[in-house]
Amino acid sequence: MKRIKIKELLATAPTGQPVAVHGWVRSFRNSQFISINDGSTLQNLQAVVELNALGEDTLKRITTGACISVSGDLVASLGKGQAVEVKVKSLEILGDCDPEAYPLQLKNRPSLEYLREIAHLRSRTNTFSAVMRVRHAMAFAVHKFFNDRGFYYIHTPVITGSDAEGAGAMFRVTTLDPAKPPLDDKGHIDYKEDFFGRETNLTVSGQLEGETYALALGEIYTFGPTFRAENSNTTRHLAEFWMIEPEMAFYDIQDNMQLAQDFLQFLTRYALDHCAEDLEFLNKRALEEDQAKPQEQRSELTLIDRLKFVAENDFQRLSYTEAIDILRNSNPNKKKKFQFLIDEWGTDLQSEHERYLVEKHFKKPVILYNYPANIKSFYMRQNEDGKTVAAMDVLFPGIGEIIGGSQREERYDRLVKRVNELGLPEKDLWWYLELRKYGSAPHSGFGLGFERLILFVTGMTNIRDVIPFPRYPGNAEF
Ligand code: 4AD
Ligand code: MG
């Protein structure tokens, strides 16, 4: 008999027709009622075993976590809690599960910290299956948004010879023997002997390569894994994360900000429209977590209200300079937690500043633009004031920076000068600089951290819980 997924089955009228279902046992009550989940939905299917229909041996093997296949008739359920159930005619154990050893028993709800240690099994929980279904829907929506607007998906390399952010936090890629690497005449490691004949690393961003295609195809985006060897042990950073980077010819910073808002609003709306069941579950989960916190730390809006708010309201746009003025004048109650350390124009904002602007002052997402050149990357377009660049960061409630982007410096002389001022290797950037020699054009782009988006949409609070196998300092077990 053809297997049917539980999600599909629950939407079918129970006319007594035969069905076959495969899935994992969530519970088995009274030697009769098996609750099965197959990952297609949060809802479990009840399969009812007739008394004495199965042998003692089989009954013993129907344990939480075991994988089984059942077939029987789909009928209306008399019990509460489900509309339909399957009257089992035959049952096969596909994979046994030792109930003594299985770490996911229903009795004790495991903590998220513990589940990180069993990342190969946490996929079986409601929380992680819901998060990953939402993650899937968001990945699909990313492609839909850009495809509908005529953007082309460009695959940029994972192994690169350039340092896109000029920040230096990269993972080296090498095939040299660490015990006895070849040395040059100065005694340094000779990367000419390495696989690619030069130093290479895992990419921190596909932007620079993306620009080459924007200046040919017009509007493009990348969506791939990126890597940062920063030693940041926070709830917002991963060493391996996925980034979406659109890059557009003929867009200025204003066009760029508008696209960022449209994109984030489309994604939140898409989640509300397509992930209702999972979001309701995650909403409840977030509420429970919130209730456990002290009053003053609780969110004013529920997860679903937060998503609706973002989908329906314009983001606040203001310049870095305006933000600094607000922060300087805000130090409202002199309580320690609001001691903003904004002494001088030109310092980077800390997350407490960003949170104040978004959560307390404007109470909506904020796009900050025109940052001081000194705290931003070399490729950002220099403004006429000689101090700022056409950078933009989108700040979200509960998340902080979700997008970083800019208009790019398209003027060859200005860009070369900046590269040299910052002591960056002009010889490695020769191809990037050439784009400004051969038919340069104004262009802009940004990067959305995919996991930060998923944090926002699912209401989860630790970025390690929204990617199947998180990479962070000291952790690459799975
Ligand atoms: O601000 P970032 O570093 O910008 C860039 O990489 C640009 N090249 C993007 C562009 O203009 N095309 O990173 C962009 C976004 C951040 O706003 C954040 O959401 C996310 O990527 N991000 C991280 N997410 C998880 N873990 C990390 N370590 C992250 N670093 C950045
Ligand atoms: Mg940034």
From TrEMBL:
Enzyme Commission code: 6.1.1.22
InterPro entries listed in its UniProt record? Aa-tRNA-synt_II (IPR004364), aa-tRNA-synth_II (IPR006195), aa-tRNA-synth_II/BPL/LPL (IPR045864), Asn-tRNA-ligase (IPR004522), Asp/Asn-tRNA-synth_IIb (IPR002312), NA-bd_OB-fold (IPR012340), NA-bd_OB_tRNA (IPR004365)
Classification via Pfam families: tRNA-synt_2, tRNA_anti-codon
Q: Where in the cell is it found?
A: Cytoplasm
Which GO CC annotations does the UniProt entry carry?
Answer: cytoplasm
Give the domain of life.
Bacteria
- GO biological process, any: asparaginyl-tRNA aminoacylation
* Top enzyme category: ligase
Q: Which HAMAP family match?
A: Asn_tRNA_synth
What the entry lists under PANTHER family is as follows: ASPARAGINE--TRNA LIGASE, MITOCHONDRIAL-RELATED (PTHR22594:SF34), ASPARTYL/LYSYL-TRNA SYNTHETASE (PTHR22594)
> What does the subunit comment say?
Homodimer.
NCBIfam families (UniProt xref) = asnS, PRK03932.1
Protein name per UniProt: Asparagine--tRNA ligase
